[in-house]
């Protein structure tokens, strides 16, 4: 199943409130407000990464279709060929699943930008932190909640 195309998210500049920058992007205490250039940088990165993933997944899907078609019942192939084909197919499936997950994270980040919840931790509802979001635009948890999750 090919990923669906989605429009790029664009922001409009609004007046900022305490703790938020353009379009309500929140910041932690002591952080500078989001500039429109920084918001545009995050949006550009998310949209470009999404477009790259969609293209890569399309190519991998065609390759995987070929591997599935060639798998057959093994007639005329020795066991090593069948094993190598099976291994390659499993690798492609793993890559596709990882890329689907990454695409879902990007779509979720873009949806959070649209609904105004971008940059807010999904666990504690505090600001994630501008530097963390700029380094990892798909982040949905603040650093302390992410560390707590990884310890579990």
Descriptive report:
The protein is mainly alpha-helical and 152 residues long. It has one domain (22-151): Up-down Bundle (Four Helix Bundle (Hemerythrin (Met), subunit A)), CATH 1.20.120.910. Helices cover 58% and strands 0% of the residues. It contains 4 helices and no strands. α1 runs antiparallel to α2 (79-115). The longest helix is centred in the middle third of the chain and has 37 residues, at 79-115. The two termini are 34 Å apart. 17% of the residues are buried. Residues 1-21 have low confidence and may be disordered.
What's this model, at a glance?
By secondary structure, the chain is mainly alpha-helical.
Number of strands: 0
Instruction: Report the uncertain regions.
Output: 1-21
**Molecular shape:** elongated
Instruction: Give the mean pLDDT.
Output: 80
How is the CATH topology named?
Four Helix Bundle (Hemerythrin (Met), subunit A)
The CATH superfamily is identified as DksA, coiled-coil domain
Report the β-strand fraction as a percent range: under 5%
Kindly provide the radius of gyration, computed on alpha-carbon positions and rounded to a whole number of angstroms: 21 Å
Give the second-level CATH assignment, the architecture.
Answer: Up-down Bundle
Topology as a string of helices (H) and strands (E): HHHH
Structural class: mainly alpha
What is the first-to-last residue Cα distance? 34 Å
Query: What does the main sheet amount to?
Result: none
Question: What proportion of the residues is helical, as a percent range?
Answer: 55-70%
Q: What is the CATH top level name?
A: Mainly Alpha
Number of helices: 4
How many discrete structural domains?
Answer: 1
């Amino acid at each position: 199943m090919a990923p669906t195309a989605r429009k790029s998210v664009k922001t409009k500049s609004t007046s900022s409130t305490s703790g938020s920058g353009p379009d309500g992007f929140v910041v932690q205490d002591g952080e500078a407000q989001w500039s429109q250039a920084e918001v545009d940088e995050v949006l550009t990165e998310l949209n470009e990464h999404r477009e790259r993933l969609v293209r890569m997944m399309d190519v991998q899907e065609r390759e995987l279709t070929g591997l599935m078609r060639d798998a057959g019942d093994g007639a005329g192939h020795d066991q090593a060929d069948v094993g190598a084909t099976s291994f390659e197919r499993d690798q492609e499936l793993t890559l596709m699943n990882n890329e689907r997950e990454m695409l879902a994270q990007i779509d979720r980040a873009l949806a959070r930008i649209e609904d105004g919840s971008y940059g807010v931790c999904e666990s504690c509802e505090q600001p994630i932190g501008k530097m963390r979001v700029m380094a990892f635009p798909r982040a949905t948890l603040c650093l302390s909640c992410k560390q707590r999750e990884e310890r579990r």
